[in-house]
Amino acid sequence: GEYPPYVNYVFMRMFNAAFGITLAPLAYLTCRQLRMPVGFAAMAGLFVTMDNALCVISRFILLDAPLLAFTAFALMMLACFYRQRRQAFSAGWWRFLLMTGVSLGLVASAKWVGMFAVALVGAYTIYELYEMFCDTHVPVHVYLKHWAARIVALIVIPLSIYMLTFKIHFMVLNRYNNSANFMPMGFQTKLIGNPISQQPYDVETGSSIRLQSHVSGAGYLHSHTHQYPAGSMRQQVTGYGYADGNNLWNVQRRLAAENVDGTRGAMSEAIPGPIGHGDVIALHHNSTNTYLYADTGHEAPVSKQFKEVSAVKADSAEAARLNMLWVVEIVNPEKRMDDGHVHPLGTPLRLRSLMGNCVLMASGDRLDKNWGWGQAEIACSSSPDARTQTGSKYLWTVERHINKAQKSVNLGQYMSSSFLRDFAVLNRQMWLTNNALIPDHDKHNVLESDPLSWPFMIYPMRMVGWDDASIKYLEIGNPLLWWGSAVACLLFPVQVLYWLVCWRRRCLAWRANEFRSYIEGAAILWGGWFLHYAPFFAMGRVTYLHHFLPSLYFGILFMTYQMYFATSWYAPRSTRSVLVILSAAAVGVFWWFSPLTFGWDKPIKDLWGMEWVSSWPVYEDKLAI
User: Fold this and answer.
1) Is the predicted pLDDT of residue 224 greater than 90, yes or no?
2) Taking the CA atoms of the chain, what radius of gyration do you get in angstroms?
3) Contacts of 452 (CB under 8 A, 6+ apart)
4) Quick check: helix, strand or coil at residue 361?
5) Which of 7, 178, 271, 494 lies at a 20 to 30 A Cα distance from 75?
6) To 5 degrees, how large is the angle CA 199–CA 200–CA 203?
7) pTM score
């Protein structure tokens, strides 16, 4: 398909590619700060340039290229600050400490995976502060000054930058879209073109309303003609995330607040007038001619600790019971709407069953896909605390109000908006959305892969379609660099353990400060590799090969670091040969796989020799069923 003319995809691709270009010089400068000579630092930059996976990811309009660039920048700033540690509070020390904080703000703002870089800097900071704590020559006031400097530079500055990116986000993306419906109502009313600001003001008997749950993803109070397969087997009431006619309910006021005593008087005909706090109402489902009904005799279909909520026909015997009546309780309304009446957008409601004395809620669970289509479960909580709870699962807002007898007003003038609240809600939604990306183990997905397979590149990822007419890109790395860095990183703990044994047996022959000079740089690079890789094993979400790329960057630099020290210790006269041979090998392997990096527009069978490992999905996806 063609892009719309207003989508400048050429600039977008160039923008992402520019981030990819920065990786090589950043790698070189980082290695120089870690005391590697020019030759090996240049080889590290060449390795980063010659990795096919790092190259191909920069060709796509994805967040991974900025993430990689800011991760590399954070590592370089940390390395620069590490070199300044003996000149505390000098101009250079302050410059690189503050720039480390800036880099952390940038990398965390690119993707949350950037928090692993924050963890690396945090671990190094703890190490430094602990070392100073154990140094009796450091005065207390100087030690506290170190703490204050790091709190400002490494917490306040990154958090400020992270929040600033959201402020800019809100300012630039100021037009309404349906995807904004999880945001606070005050935020939505400020968006250009929003459809919810102009509505009738007073909800009254005869109004049709659409009730939105405060639980993210629960959507609107909804019903349809299908029945529960168990329990009462009455008509389902669910939460549905999209606007549709089955979300509309007609409000009928049955008793004013001052007359509520639980008597049969509540079953009288609808009383005209606005709906207020404490009033008893019935909610009539417009499209199916049913009433919202709390059935305390049956458990909710999924969350058994709650009671079932269903819909009963208006002409049925159940419709004459008090179970279909609800007490309206207004909770924390907007100040400019705090008149005791229900209004759209600004008066959150708690609906309590008059008979069952339970509170209407979105449980947070999902109904079975086979009979409930995965829609949100709506239930009734009879917990003693539920009647006073103000948590999101008990609250509802009139998001849509239809009443032809009233004129629409601009509701935005009554609504308030807070950046901190909007910031918190959006971050919470990002967290929930990210956690909802769970793999379906019943079917194979050509894009997904397990973290265990990443270091040795068992299953590269197809970036696009794979038919003969497509331009084919494969997220395949340079095997020389991936396998070499994996071996170097995985063997490092064994190497350290061996040295510890030798140290205990007093058979190490390190010169003064030689071990410290080596181990501190190695710990920074290996720690970055570990912290960017290990957390994925604990994640329940879907994982992809490109999640490994930040860890790969650290791994390539660590492999080069190991090569430098191994050469200087055991074969110092072979340094030039090592540099030439390894650099030429990296370039050669990159060239070999370059057709799948820059795009292959012919049938894949015409490309020979690309499947070095039988599990690689180059010619066919062997894992597909």
Assistant:
1) yes
2) 31
3) 537
4) strand
5) 494
6) 120
7) 0.88
